[in-house]
Design a protein that fits this description.
The complex is a heterodimer of chains A (127) and B (140). Chain A has 127 residues and is an alpha+beta fold. Chain A is built from 2 helices and 6 strands; from the N terminus they run E-E-H-H-E-E-E-E. Chain B is built from 3 helices and 6 strands; from the N terminus they run βαααβββββ. The chains are: A alpha+beta (127), B alpha+beta (140).
Chain lengths: 127, 140
Amino acid sequence: MLNPDVVGRTYKGANSFTVSQESITAFALAIGEPNIFIAPPTFSISISLTESQALLQESGLDWSRVVHGDQRFEIHRPLVAGDSIICSSTIESARVMAGNEIVTVRSDLHAGTELLISSWSTLVVRA
Amino acid sequence: MVDIGCARMNFEIGQELAPQSFFINRAKLIAYANASGDQNPIHQDEVFAKSVGLENVIAHGMYTMALAGRYVSEIAGGSEKVREFSAHFTKPVIVPAGVDVELILSAKVSAVEGDVIKVDLTAICEDVKVLGMAKATFSA
C-alpha cells in the first residue's frame, strides 16, 4: 500500500535533462508519425512515467501490479529537440476501490519557468 | 472546388471525421517499448503475459493512445496543434504472434469555440471499444 502521507507532496527532479532528437525520432517512428521535428502529443509520457515510477516506488507502491487506468495531457507548447526540462511529480490522490488501489499522479514539465506540459496518470494497483 | 492539402479545414459540431486504421503487431510493440521506456514484459513476452493471467501479449495502453494522438494530429493538421488529450484504458488490445491487429480510430466534433476544436474519439479493436472517454482539443 501507498503511504498516505505522500499524497499532495511534490517531488521535483533534481536535474534538468535535454530532450534529444534521437528520442523524438524513435517515438515518432514507433507510431508511424512522419514529422520528427515536433514531439508527438503523448511523447512526454516517456519522461513523466519514468519520473513517476521512481516516486511511486519510493512511496511504497508495488509497480509490478500496476495497470494504467487513465491518462490526460495539457500541452501548452510541444517539446522539441534541445529543450532543457525539469519534471516535477505530485501524487494528487490515492484511494481504494473494490480492493484496488487507485493513484493519480500529476507531472509538470518546465523549461526554465515556462510550463510546457502537464499530464495526469491514473494507475490502478491490482489487489 | 479542388481540395488542396494545405487548405484550412472547417469543422462543425457533430461532424464525423473520416476513420483511419492502424495495424499493431509484436515488432511495433517492441519498437514502442524501446522508444517509450516501458519495458513491461506483458507487452512483449507471451509466456510472461499468460503467467499473470492475460489471454496473450497486450499492447501498451499508451501505444494505443499514441496512435490515437497521431490520428488527432492528422485531423488537426499537425501535432503542434494538439492542446489537450485524454483517455481511459477500458479494454486491452490483444496482440497474438504473427498477426497485424487492426485498430480503427474515428472522431466526432463535439465543440467549436473560435479556432479551438474539441473532438470525441472512438478506438475499436475486434469490435470492442478499447479507449473510453477519449477526447482531444486542438487549434484549427
